[in-house]
Amino acid sequence: MLLIPCPYCGERAEGEFRYGGEAHFRRPDNHLEATDEAWADYLFMRKNPKGWHRERWMHLAGCRRWFYVVRHTITHKIATAYKVGDAHPDLPA
Amino acid sequence: MTVECAPLDNVVRPGETNGPSGIALTDRRFVGQVNLRVRGSGLTAAGHALGYALPMAANTTAGDATSRACWLGPDEWLIVCDDGKQAELIQQLSAALAIDPNAVTDVTDARAVLRIAGACARPVLAKGCTLDLHPRVFGADRVAQSLIARAQVMILPIEGGGYDLFVARSFAGYLWDWLLDAGAEYGIRVEG
Amino acid sequence: MSQDFRLAQGGRIDREKPLRFLFDGHAYEGFAGDTLASAMLANGIHLVSRSFKYHRPRGIYGLGVEEPNALVETGIGAGIEPNARATTVELADGLIANSQNRWPSLRFDLGAVADLASPLLSAGFYYKTFMSPAGGWKIYEWLIRRAAGVGHAPELPDPDRYEHSYAHADVLVVGAGPAGLAAALAAGRAGARVMLVDDQVEPGGQLLNTPYAINGRPAPEWVAEATAELDRLPDVRRLARTLALGVYDHGYVACVERAIPVSQGRVRWRERLWRVRAKEIVVATGAIERAIIFDGNDRPGTMLASAARAYAVRYGVAAGQRAVVFANNDDAYRTALDLANAGVEVAAVVDLRHDLSGALPGMARERGLRVLAGHGIVGGRGRTRIKAVEAAPVDDPSNRQVIECDLLAVSGGWNPALHLYAHAGGKAAYDSGLAAFVPGAPAERMTIAGAAAGRFQLADCLADGARLGAEAARRAGFSAGPALVLDAPEPEPDSRIGPVASPSRGGKRFVDLHNDVTEADLRLAVTEGYRSVEHAKRYTTWGMGPDQGKTGNILGLNVLSDALGQPVPQVGTTTFRPPYHPVSFGALAGRETGDLVVPTRKTPMDSWHAEAGALFEPVGQWRRAKAYPKPGESLHAAADREVRAAREGVGLFDASTLGKIDMSGPGAETLIERVYCNNFASLKPGHARYGLMLGEDGMVKDDGVTARLGPDHFHMTTTTGGAAGVYVWIEDWLQTEWLDLEVFLTSVTEQWAVATLSGPKARQVLGPLTDVDLSAAAFPFMSFREGRVAGMPARIFRVSFSGDLSYEINVPARHGLALWQALMESGRPHGITPYGTEALHILRAEKGYIVVGHETDGTITPADLGMEAMVSKKKDFLGRRSLVRSGMSGPGRKHLVGLMTKDPARVLPMGAQILERPSEARPVPMIGHVTSSYHSPTMKRGIAMALVKNGRARMGDTVYLPLLDGPTVAAEVVKPVFYDPEGARRDG
Ligand SMILES: [Zn+2]
Fold first, then answer.
1. Residue A4 β-bridge partners
2. Residue A62 to residue B76, Cβ atoms within 8 A
């Protein structure tokens, strides 16, 4: 069971959170005019990297905030967590 | 380690009733609860209405003789007071926050409050709660939202050892049964 | 039988406390402090089991969790525990144990014919034999299932209680041997919160049977002192009988604690799973001795040298009267000396090495022990107990000499117990000097001390522990406490290790005793092309038994190394995964059994439903009244009666489980407009509207009625099951995308109890109770009023999910039951009838109202449901862009339709597949399925809703539904509204 560092509450057990998948994929600007390809890309395509991954979590059983985590998908190491609106930290080497 | 709480010995004897107990479980029936959501300039206004500043540090509380504000999120607090006082509190807050975006919601009936008191309360909660409730980490001014077994709770430490557990009303029966079962090892008894 | 093999003195057992136990129906006696294994050995019992595949007689082999043979069944009836290691079962008065995997008895086991047939049972036997004929597997499987397996699962429910506890430690120390005790002391003295777990009853590990001193005093005295100091430290928790099973992510360690066995009564809890979150982990798990490969290396009476030593010194038990020690390393001489000092005759030490110049062989010779250098064991005598061994020079294996013995103590060197390190992601490195794997690069939050790191000298173990314990505490934020000064001189062993195999003269040479895997099996696997260690492992099952090859892993790797012509590190090692040792299902389940498996959420009116004899159904975690059958009444009859009451008179329904979200703030209207696909901007305060919510993919996500309480204030309802998901989803948009919107959500699902009064007489029931003007003109459909009902503050919504006049009355939850009772009382003259979810579904299906999750499944658009007219063309909303993607409209999509069976009495099963023609060629083209289906008491016939390809173009067509094990039923496609299509009844 992972320890997720909520930027508000600190480290809490994974069971308190809801996972939200990849972070920072952009809803196309002027989305109503977006091409089918661009829209499908936004809806369905995710990176699913082997390695460092910026992802979304919500502290459901805690402060109910959505935030971002940089997690390694193989080792589950968590490099950092940050709030919505914070600068995106660099991925570890 | 220093013994803070001794379990009953690990043998169930025929006809045994719960023995000497360091732990009591009480249904507090109704506790006045107001959910407050406010940010920016409204924070000061809310503080004026309450008579004390809202606690801004995560998972802490502040209060006076009338009410206690528990941090729930960066713009959310649960104001706890005696049952019957919540209407007045809502009125004061709403009046003070007239120009600031806010939500002041009576949630008194949404949550039951179960009190688990006594030196053995901590090891009982530790059976289903991943939080570290060691007094060094979780002192008297703290509050936390978490899970106990499969119920979401807000845990508020009480004087003299123990906790008030705020739990969604529909989960209260489950949590009650769970606490009685988990507390059996310590001879938990029901009070009130 | 008396304890003939109990030594006259010594051991840490309590000779004043005799304990009786039964093994295979015979009564024996042991002492407090014994394990079942030590007590059996004290009674001369070696033969304890039959092997897994060949049913060969097997004896007690080890001392603890490494035991591959002595798997027994303990307890009786519901208390049966199969596959208990006799070496880890603490003896208790009245303990009952039985051998397994034998019939009719341990001594005469018919399954042993498998041993005679063993040439047929080589590696890959199952794969090769059961490939053909096709279909033969069914018979083979039956035979194999009878023959395979070890113990039998108990057939009665487990009466015992199992606990779970979370714990937090700055420093978790695993193992209370010299390194672990030193580490715990160092960390504890620094003030860290320490948890010290050890699987033994007594702390000390090897210190309990070492002849050497610490600080000039016997080691056990130091153990007692260290333990007492630990117990005085306020933040140190010391757990005996507690085995660390696995290390998981971020310092999460699972340990299982066994209760102290009791002889009378029942334990309050039997096992406790500790779920420890540790900032730092010090692994001091020691090492496990390994065997040597030689001909017939599985005779009962053969055991690990360290086990024979510990039985003598710790338990005061002579595992035999005349021992041969078989060695490839110096440590074996400690065993020989300890056995001799304890009073066991040591007939010989047979050492595969030629050069025995170290101090320990010298001490053995001085003690007068016979040492055969450069010799191996090439055979033996005895079937159910060893009688003699054949020793021969390694260079001349045929030159045999017979040495009589009843104990063969085998020492093939030590393997650091690296399992926890491997769980944490550590990659072990091969140390050819030790012929063992030792820790490689550090694993996260973990350090490894003493023998677990391949450092076997006592002084090194103590020093490692003290240093790593202090360092772990420092990393956890504590500065070092008083230093530990520990002096422990002992003879320096010659670190050279001999070969791991003795010369062969034919005969079975086991590398995995539990799974009966021999050296020849592994060589055959290589010959047949299984060159990867992981493939050879799976092909032969080497290391795949419940002991996970704790004693045979290195042996097998050496065999593969030889067969492949590659050095051991290149052959690789297999991966250790949790658990380190098998764990009971009970310990994993903990409190989550019976009623506590999942929460049962109850509404404020639940007690009334229960007293009324309601039939409940689970809806998510909620339990909801499905119907209120009268005595002798079936569910269907009850639902029919309830529907008729709600249509013709008045019914009362508990709708408290609906999700409710309070939305407040200047951005509330914009938010509502974005999350619903239909218009809400025009909704006036005091009014309510049905809203349809789509995902970004344009598919229907949830629905519900939302009321406007004020200009910036809404009360949204969601489906019961969708409540949490919708809340999280809207918060997601608010918090991450629409930061400009000033609006606050508060979940009020639990704040309000909801009773729905429905039927033409609803107004007559509610009227006398309320100050709200209920006339249709004053309180029109889709509006809400605040007022009092039976003296309680209430919000009344005039909405309808049945098509008839309805009031949804919301009161603060504490009043829910009183409201219900007041409505029942007021309704009595009108024949008010409580109705459950079954009637609710029939009522709404008669009207063609959808239920999200029945009529939708995440692939259904508003147009599919015939609701496209609702969808706003003017505003933007979530999912809008997706509605114009290709494939989201046009031919080929499924449409919601009604079905009327040609036979009105027929009620279709939900999920039934729909065909165009009564019979079709395979693969049968299916054009849709039934989403909801009921007997409608109002229409007096079966009605169904269905999703059918191009359904709206098929109105009036006949479709066909082949039923499982039944006829093919014909039905007519109709509009999905069966009752009051004009909506004339909603005003009562
Ligand atoms: Zn949080």
1. A12
2. no
